[in-house]
């Protein structure tokens, strides 16, 4: 298209651009990629094995829980990532019990390896963090998927998203109970209770605490995500000019309409 019309403006898929924000962060945060792999591996373990899924269902029934399936965390669709993280956290104890039962039955290395992966405190801390971080990001994603989207208002939606992420930092630092991350102490206790005595003696995860994770990983990750999203959704000046043609952008006060739509030539 650019060869046929060199002056045309190309606009990338907005949802793809949003997904790329998190893909770019994977390069700086290997833990994010490890977390992504753990979520996908857990989903695959039950999705492709009716026998394993039957055990998962029976343990949910034993706990009096609704028999739910895990949600696939697709790397290119972070809307699914948010739902997958929440479902994973809500069924964390059940998942561990299922993996223990499966390993006791057949001693499968795949099951043992996955159990070791999801009992890493840093991985679980990142999953909890994503539960909170992806809530405002998913709202922005749904806005970008709307067939009636108005691109001239996208900038304000992006700003609202970054503001919510900045607010989230304060909530996390103040240990607010409304966040999913507030469950981290019970999750860490669950991990400690299930960690082999030999690993506890070696102190493999002794230095991983909620506060150190937020300081070294969580808060910098959110700040970098804010920068990525802001940079990805800069409105082109030509598109910005179309704001004057959208009745939704009309000023609220009559006196402001006098100068509305006027531009200065340079």
Task: Provide structural commentary.
This protein is mainly alpha-helical. The chain has helices at residues 14-28, 30-47, 50-62, 78-90, 92-106, 109-118, 121-145, 154-173, 184-194, 197-202, 210-232, 237-241. α1 (14-28) packs across α2 and α7 crosses α9. The two termini are 30 Å apart. The model has no long low-confidence stretch (mean pLDDT 84).
Total count of helical runs of at least 4 residues? 12
Overall residue-averaged pLDDT value: 84
How much of the residues is beta strand, in percent? Answer: under 5%
Rg result: 23 Å
Task: State the helicity in percent bands.
Answer: 55-70%
For the report, how would you describe the main beta sheet?
none
How many β-strands, per DSSP? 0
N-end to C-end Cα span: 30 Å
- Specify the overall morphology: elongated
Low-pLDDT residue intervals, each spanning 5 or more residues: none
Give me the strand/helix succession.
HHHHHHHHHHHH
Oligomer: single chain
Q: What can be said about this structure in brief?
A:
With 266 residues, the chain is an all-alpha fold.
């Amino acid at each position: 298209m650019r060869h046929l019309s060199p002056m045309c403006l190309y606009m990338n898929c907005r949802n793809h651009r949003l997904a790329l924000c998190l893909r770019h962060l994977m390069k700086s945060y290997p833990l994010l990629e490890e977390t992504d792999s753990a979520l996908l591996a857990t989903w695959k373990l039950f999705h492709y094995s009716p026998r394993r899924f039957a055990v998962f269902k029976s343990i949910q029934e034993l706990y009096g829980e609704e028999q739910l399936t895990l949600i696939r965390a697709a790397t290119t669709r972070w809307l699914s990532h948010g739902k997958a993280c929440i479902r994973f956290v809500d069924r964390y104890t059940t998942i561990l019990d299922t993996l223990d039962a499966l390993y006791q039955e057949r001693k499968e290395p795949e099951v043992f390896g996955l159990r070791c992966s999801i009992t890493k405190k840093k991985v679980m801390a990142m999953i909890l963090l994503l539960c909170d971080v992806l809530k405002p990001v998913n709202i922005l994603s749904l806005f970008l998927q709307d067939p009636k989207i108005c691109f001239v208002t996208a900038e304000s939606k992006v700003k609202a998203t970054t503001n919510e992420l900045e607010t989230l930092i304060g909530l996390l630092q103040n240990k607010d109970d409304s966040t999913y991350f507030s469950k981290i102490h019970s999750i860490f206790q669950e991990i400690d209770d299930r960690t082999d005595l030999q690993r506890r003696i070696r102190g493999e995860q002794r230095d991983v605490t909620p506060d150190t994770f937020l300081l070294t990983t969580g808060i910098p990750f959110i700040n970098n995500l804010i920068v990525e999203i802001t940079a990805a959704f800069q409105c082109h000046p030509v598109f910005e000019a179309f704001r004057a043609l959208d009745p939704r952008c009309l000023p609220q006060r009559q006196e402001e309409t006098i100068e509305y739509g006027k531009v200065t030539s340079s």
